[in-house]
Amino acid sequence: MVYICSVGKGIPENNLHQEEVKQLVQQVFAKESRKVTRLLPVFDHAKIENRQFVVDKNWFEKEHTFEDQNQIYQEKAIHYSLEAIDHCLHHEHFLTREIPYEAIDLIAFVSSTGISTPSIDAFLMNERLFRNDVERMPLWGLGCAGGAIGLSKVFDFLKAHPEKCALVVCCELCGITFQKNDDSTSNIVGTALFGDGISACFLAGEASPYLSYARKSVPKILKKSSFFKKDSTSVMGWRVTNGGLEVIFSKSIPALVNTFWRKHIEHFFEQNDLQTKDISSYIAHPGGMKVLLAMEKVLQDDHEKLKHSYEVLKSHGNMSSATVLYVLYNRMKADAQAGEKGILSALGPGFNSELLLLEWKD
Fold it and tell me: Which of 25, 87, 93, 224 lies at a CB distance of 3.0 to 4.6 Å from 152, suitable for a disulfide?
């Protein structure tokens, strides 16, 4: 089997309170005041208090070319991904000893908010003492589902190579995709929800010598499942323009939780002979408050089992692929007992749903 031994974060230095972002939007889109005023309640209903960004508040008040945005992406993605990796491999709460960089056999780098060739993982390998024969798995365009899909891909790799270990690095700089001249509903709603987040996760196969470095009970990945909805590419994604990446964000997403995701999660429970009483926690990507509430309604389970998703949404907002690893981080810090099960879940462009069944083991 495959074990998740540690999670780390690289938290951007610029923290903005939701009220600050709300006022900023009013200022930037002053000429479209009537339309913006109608959308402002979205900021309050989101139930987000703080978000973090790699750029300061003044940056959002100016126009930027796609080239400018992408240069920031490349520079900051390297910096904060290294911070997240270091935090993950040296985390005293999760590990008895530091994991050496030389131990890593595979790096899966997940991102959708900037472009880089070679992919960012190549730059990360140059900055730390990773071996030259590390396998690279760059995953682009998966959006909010990327963190869960990254874990699934690494799960497959480590099942085939149980003596090895790997890193999943999720880096999403959603803030720098902000379009100053786009007063569309999608852009305003996206501005009310998205923040920047970077996270890293260390996984070990069951025969890896580094599995013994795990300090306490850790989650083992038992099963995974992907579910794709045909003809739904317009639900979420990017529209590439001369000004950068313009967000596509459909208001139908909460409704899809009640139909598409319901079908997937019910099949997953049936396939794995599970009942709600068997699950101690749902490590769900918090796409937004409406999405979490829709999931809770589908599950008909204890609100407390989703508390870590609500906490991350409140403190960081939606950070696309990185968010679910932040939720996993909080759940692992809570020190689950051996035998407890959890379901890790994320939805993303495609439209796609990814589910993983976890069980905590000593």
Answer: 224
